[in-house]
Amino acid sequence: MTAERAGRPHLTVVIPAYNEERRIAGTLARIAAYVEKAGLTEEILVVDDGSSDATAGIASDVLRGRRGRVLRSDENRGKGHAVRRGVVEAAGRWVLLTDADLSAPIEEHATLADAVRERDLDVAIGSRALSGSRVEVRQSAVRQAMGRTFNRIIRLMTGLPYRDTQCGFKLLDRDRVRPLFEKMVVDRFAFDVEFLYLCKRFGLKVREVPVVWRNSPGSKVSLLGDPINMIFDVARVRWRFRRGLYNPEVPAEGRGGGGGEA
């Protein structure tokens, strides 16, 4: 690992959370154990998206004494808004996005980090849909079919080559991606597509990486309204791009592995 800027953590783990009081303590314990074993200096950000339960209080108690904090919203703004806030406020050289249920085990960070290092990437996105992916507990047949249909539509609308844009496990070069997140506008579940579309348009190096994944119950995605809203959001992203409403200033230096191993 190369020298880091004084006082700067190597990795910020961003966890968007909405009504996760039953599992947030266990999730944070697993993350803390992993980063300690891996020898990483870390920051943990739990972004509480207007939870009506004790998520924020429990997370604050667990994080006391660690480099980490809870970022709270007074209302439920959506996962995209929570992730965007976490990435913009992250201090780490690298940012790991992970869901509160750890459907992709935290140990899969090493898989993404290896891909970043070997291929000099800016972004590594976990995938449940590649030949090397290992899905140990699957979603329902209806949700799988919905996901495949959504992915086909998105590939047609955006030209993105990825088989799985919606996996919540992603490793990002924070300095390269922050300008994109500062310009992003999608607050709900299509934010992944907005992010990857901007990565493509502004020349960031991205690769889809197979990971282990285990479905956890309690998905916040509605089978009725959310897919339609997501398609409208993607259309809005294309409209905004064509009118020059993004135009982030992405730094050229520190690309991919240049800022140190992930």
- CATH top-level class: Alpha Beta
Largest sheet: 7 strands, mixed
Percent in strands:
15-25%
Q: What structural category arises from helix and sheet content?
A: alpha/beta
In CATH, what is the homologous superfamily? Spore Coat Polysaccharide Biosynthesis Protein SpsA, Chain A
Q: Determine the number of helices (DSSP H or I, runs of at least 4 residues).
A: 8
- Ends distance: 9 Å
Remind me, CATH topology? Spore Coat Polysaccharide Biosynthesis Protein SpsA, Chain A
H and E string: EHEHEHEHEEHEHHEEH
- Count of domains: 1
- Count the E strands: 9
Question: What is the compact description of this entry?
Answer:
With 262 residues, this protein is α/β, with parallel strands linked by helices. It is 39% helix and 18% strand.
Describe this structure in words.
With 262 residues, the chain is α/β, with parallel strands linked by helices. It has one domain: Spore Coat Polysaccharide Biosynthesis Protein SpsA, Chain A (Alpha-Beta Complex), CATH 3.90.550.10. Helix content is 39%, strand content 18%. The chain is built from 8 helices and 9 strands. Strand 1, helix 1 and strand 2 form a beta-alpha-beta unit. The longest helix is centred in the middle third of the chain and has 18 residues. The model has no long low-confidence stretch (mean pLDDT 90).
